[in-house]
Amino acid sequence: MELKAYYRILIGKRWIVLGAFLITFIATLLFTFSQPWVYRATATFVVRVGIAYIDDRDFVSALDTLSRRAEIASTYAEVANSRRIKNLAGDDLLLTSAEIRKLSVDSRLIAGTNILEITVHGQVPALVRDFTNAIGAQTVAYVETLYEAYELEPLDEALLPTSPVKPDRALNLALGGIFGLILGAGLAFLSEYLQTPLVTATNFSVLDEETGAYSKPYFMLRLRQEMSRAKHNNYPLYNYPLSVALINVNHPVRMDGVSSQISSETLRGVAALLMPELREEDMMARFSDNVFAFLLPHMPGGAAKKNVEGLLTKMGSTPVESNRSGVKVNVHGTAGVVAYPKRGIGQEELLAQARRALENAEPAADGMVCLFSELTGRD
């Protein structure tokens, strides 16, 4: 589908797009402004060798161990994240259990360093700062007994946060607007997709209501399928001939000024007369006002011509009676036949050849059947 087609769908369904955008944007707006501000404070610590506890030789060994084993610093990070340290820090600040639960702690080792970073999120800036520093102090006190050769030393204490980090209202509203537009466009395309089959089903009727024969759109679909089958089976070991015939129904009601109702009933009678004469795999369709098209699979051109001559004989020898008026009408016709060539051609070209054969037969006497290959001298 071209971009212009997508654009036309969006313009045609603009109320769906606009509605989805407004609903999503307003919902995002309400959700964003209903969320409390969240502040963040961070304190940093360095894990280093405790010089006061070891001699020079042990110092070199401890330093080498620390550089090769990040597990020591990682242990300190896990200690800072523990529930025990969090509760001890809360006790220092005289916080209740509910207040402690509103504070989240995240401690991590900065990659490639021995720097430990402790971060606290909460809704009260001063409390966030104080709790971060309290977590750091409790962590330092607790790990003093873990490794005598190492110690955790404060590097930067937490400062009072001046602006919240969550929610990012501008980002949320932008994402909400973008999502609303995407949702609206998706709903517009879905609506178009769901409506298309209904429109197609309405416009594409298998039967012609006036005559009872198959409709032209269905005939074109079947012809395309049969041509594809004949083309792909056109090998020495296979034989899939295919012929198409057009019969023009000539009857006096068109010239006598008789009502169109009788004309329709006449054509319906012709269809009812000829369809029983067809094989099960054959197909008869209303092609135009007074022209019926016949799809004749597994039938070469010569055999198709004889078959159609039999249909015209049947039609000319059997009067068609109008159910409403009771008038019997003698109908006659001419026909053009074309066989699908071995070299293969397009659908429009095949039908053009059938029309040319029909046009060549029409000036002749009723019952005339013209085979296209007889006009051109080609198979």
Description:
Helices cover 51% and strands 18% of the residues. Strand 10 (332-339), helix 12 (347-361) and strand 11 (369-371) form a beta-alpha-beta unit. It is of the alpha+beta class and 379 residues long. The protein folds into 3 domains: 3-34 and 168-201, no CATH class; 39-156, Alpha-Beta Plaits, CATH 3.30.70.1130; 216-376, Alpha-Beta Plaits, CATH 3.30.70. The strands form 3 sheets. Strands 6-7-5-10-11 form a 5-stranded mixed β-sheet, with helices on both faces. The protein is built from 13 helices and 11 strands.
In the CATH hierarchy, what is the superfamily of the largest domain? Reverse transcriptase/Diguanylate cyclase domain
Helix fraction by DSSP (H/I, runs of at least 4): 40-55%
Order of helices and strands: HHEHHHHEEHEHHEHEEHEEEHEH
Spatial strand sequence of the major β-sheet: 6-7-5-10-11
Overall structural domain count: 3
Beta-strand portion reads 15-25%
Instruction: Summarize model confidence as the mean pLDDT.
Output: 84
CATH architecture of the largest domain: 2-Layer Sandwich
Alpha plus pi helix count: 13
Return the CATH class of the largest domain. Alpha Beta
Oligomeric organization of the protein chains:
single chain
The major pleated sheet works out as: 5 strands, mixed
Runs in which pLDDT lies below 50 for 5 or more consecutive residues are 253-257
Shape: rod-shaped
Q: Tell how many strands the DSSP assignment holds.
A: 11
Broad structural category: alpha+beta
Write the CATH fold name of the largest domain. Alpha-Beta Plaits
Straight-line distance between termini: 40 Å
Our Rg estimate from Cα atoms comes to 44 Å
